[in-house]
Amino acid sequence: MYGNDFAQPGAADSKAAAPPHPLNAAETPDYTDALAEYFDGLIEQDQRVEPRDAMPEAYRTTLVRQMAQHAHSEIIGMQPEANWITRAPSLRRKAILMAKVQDEAGHGLYLYSAAETLGVDRSELLDKLHSGRQKYSSIFNYPTLTWADAGAIGWLVDGAAIMNQVPLCRCSYGPYARAMIRVCKEESFHQRQGFEILWVLARGTEEQRAMAQDAANRWWWPALQMFGPPDTGEHASSGHTAQSMAWGIKRFSNDDLRQKFVDMTVPQAQKLGITLPDPDLAWNEERGHWDFGAIDWDEFWRVLKGDGPCNEQRIRTRVEAHEEGAWVREAADAYAAKQAARRQPEAVA
Ligand code: FAQ
Questions:
Q1: What is the pLDDT of residue 303?
Q2: Does residue 112 sit within a domain?
Q3: Is the CB of 274 under 6 A from ligand 1?
Q4: How many domains is the chain built from?
Q5: For the chain, how long is the longest CA-to-CA vector?
Q6: Could you tell me if the CB of 104 is within 6 A of ligand 1?
Q7: Minimum-distance ligand 1 atom for the alpha carbon of 239
Q8: What was the pLDDT predicted at 2?
Q9: Which residue in 6, 188, 294, 310 has the most C-beta neighbors within 10 A?
Q10: Which atom from ligand 1 is nearest to the alpha carbon of 254?
Q11: Could you tell me which residues belong to the region Disordered (predicted)?
């Protein structure tokens, strides 16, 4: 469905053609001209920046912000679907949904690990999530009211997530790009399982068809908001896109990815027999794209500020899970300390 874009290593996984590395970042307190030249050379030649490379502080903080937000989205995103694990309509559906939700936890772990290569600690990032100082995707502040929502999340939310993440496999920061390859493969599978849930419902009873349509009605617009504010116009944010594109972090603007998503999804909706809730949706021959209606950006900013239907519940559940899981972290620390002690050479009496 997405081709094989994410399997491509991008222009450069090897630094064969890279300029010589003048100094090691970890040993250099100042970001000197030589280091800046080295970093600029990597970006110009579309090479990967690796954790020990010197980098501008603004590049590092942009990555930490985006990767943390991304990691938080993966783990908060477990909640709406986990809501349906006990009520999935069959054992097979339950097993598939459990595996999917576990995959999202795994994505969070890769992303926190990748963020840690930039010198932050995941406990610090989680603390920022729990105290509202770092964001997670707006989409996860909406409720899952029926079983069809599990289908709509897979089809539309994972669909939008991969459209945004496939280009991140070519992100200039190596650990993020590499994490994205596996994440995209798994998200692609999730998208298909969501499509299949809706496919079955859309061919079921009258009530099941209505349930599938209702889920699509509720998830369509929030899915379009996932790509972030528009590039231009009164609702555009001051935004990170131009700088992130110059650094090779983002490869496409928010609006370009949103358009690609609409173009990909409309024919899928037609196959499903689901009507997307937008009377302005129309094929534009001249542009070679689907036109679509105005997105409610006031709602988007409201949800981001904390006033979505489930914001409070999501953070409360997350904080409770963190507190209840303290014993796991303590046990892991105790085990690591014991293993480290075993590796110490025996003290000479
Ligand atoms: N929600 O200038 P831009 C998933 C913020 S993973 C919340 O465009 P940027 C898997 C943005 O942070 C879904 N905040 O910013 C899954 C910035 O805030 P700041 C998550 C948003 O970073 C599926 C401000 O607005 N994916 O779904 C959103 O260049 C199913 C201005 O925006 C990622 O995180 C939003 N939708 O571009 C799990 C992918 N949009 O810091 C479970 C990686 C924007 O100025 C079940 N991230 N903001 O206060 C990205 O690609 C980018 O960060 C964007 C935003 C495109 C999201």
A1: 97
A2: yes
A3: no
A4: 1
A5: 85
A6: yes
A7: 2
A8: 42
A9: 6
A10: 56
A11: 1-28
pTM of the complete model: 0.91
Q: Are 144 and 83 in contact (CB under 8 A)?
A: yes
Token digits of residue 81: 């679907």
Instruction: State residue 100's pLDDT score.
Output: 97
Spacing of C-alpha 204 from chain mean position: 32
Q: Is residue 348 part of a domain?
A: no
235 CB less than 6 Å from ligand 1? Answer: no
- Written as six digits, the tokens of 179 are 């994490």
Terminal C-alpha separation, the chain: 66
Residue with tokens 């598939």: 96
CATH code of the domain containing 70: 1.20.1260.10
pLDDT tens track for 326-339:
999 999 999 999 99
Q: Is residue 11 part of a domain?
A: no
Q: How far is the CA of 346 from the centre of ligand 1 (A)?
A: 51
- C-beta of 60 in contact with ligand 1 (< 6 A): no
User: What is the residue type of 111?
Assistant: L
DSSP, collapsed to helix, strand or coil, labels residue 49 as strand
